[in-house]
Amino acid sequence: MVTLDDGVFSDLQGVAQRRNITIQELFRAVVIPDWIERTMGTESHRPGENLG
After folding, report:
1. How many helices and strands in the chain, by DSSP H and E?
2. Which of 5, 26, 34, 41 is deepest in the core (most CB within 10 A)?
3. Phi-psi region at 48: left, alpha or beta (left = phi > 0; alpha = psi -120 to 50)
4. Do residues 9 and 22 make contact, with C-beta atoms less than 8 angstroms apart?
5. Is the pTM of this model over 0.85?
6. Which of 52, 36, 19 lies closest to 44, judged by CA?
7. What is the DSSP code (8-state) at residue 32?
8. End-to-end CA distance of the chain, in Å?
9. Do residues 37 and 44 lie in contact, with contact meaning Cβ atoms separated by under 8 Å?
10. Is pLDDT at 2 greater than 80 in this prediction?
């Protein structure tokens, strides 16, 4: 669960509207992947990579 300041929510809502997507889609497609990459660095597993 995520709690957002009203200003941050408004900013994200604007970004989502410009992309013609929902805020949930924005989180799934942009925010979460970016957060994972920044948090785990370049050594993180990416979808489609061979783990073996």
Report:
1. 3, 0
2. 26
3. left
4. no
5. no
6. 36
7. H
8. 33
9. yes
10. no
